[in-house]
Amino acid sequence: xxxxxxxxxxxxxxxxxxxxxxxxxxxxxxxxxxxxxxxxxxxxxxxxxxxxxxxxxxxxxxxxxxxxxxxxxxxxxxxxxxxxxxxxxxxxxxxxxxxxxxxxxxxxxxxxxxxxxxxxxxxxxxxxxxxxxxxxxxxxxxxxxxxxxxxxxxxxxxxxxxxxxxxxxxxxxxxxxxxxxxxxxxxxxxxxxxxxxxxxxxxxxxxxxxxxxxxxxxxxxxxxxxxxxxxxxxxxxxxxxxxx
Length: 244
What we know:
12 helices; 5-stranded parallel beta sheet
């Protein structure tokens, strides 16, 4: 049986490293789901509020818990590793905070790779910030490799964009669904991928999406099912037993 994992459940599966999926089924996700996962983590590092809050927590040795946002937890873990690597003193952290408030973080994040192999002086706030983003990019890259490795070790097949939208027939079908259903545009490509690969079950923790997929009508064989990511393993087992 083909099982499709939406972005939110893919994140939960990777974050909970001790989950074992039943091996008698085929598991799929879409390339866009992986991009959404990685992008959700990266976007934290162009948010001044996120960086400043975690710099403050680092100074006070306070651990900020976040039970609901997995990308936040992962970004905080990366942030902690970056600051441990940099070993900034108190004055340097103050100067880094000042730089975070003053400069365009999208730009600084974007150009960080340009000086990855360049030694930057730590005697100015801009230098402190450039070193910070250089380390952020390195840790993000390593975590990206870990994501790919976890997906592979869980034997989840990644469907690529060109496998779905690589011919005019699929494009026509996609446009028809685009015109007739009420699915949020940001999710439509993901939903269509599961439909085009004839996945029997589409698992998601997005309740509104399950409801929106009712607008697809009856001309498909995919069942859209909500799962609580906190109990992902037991709920997947229960769902699979229902659809044998």
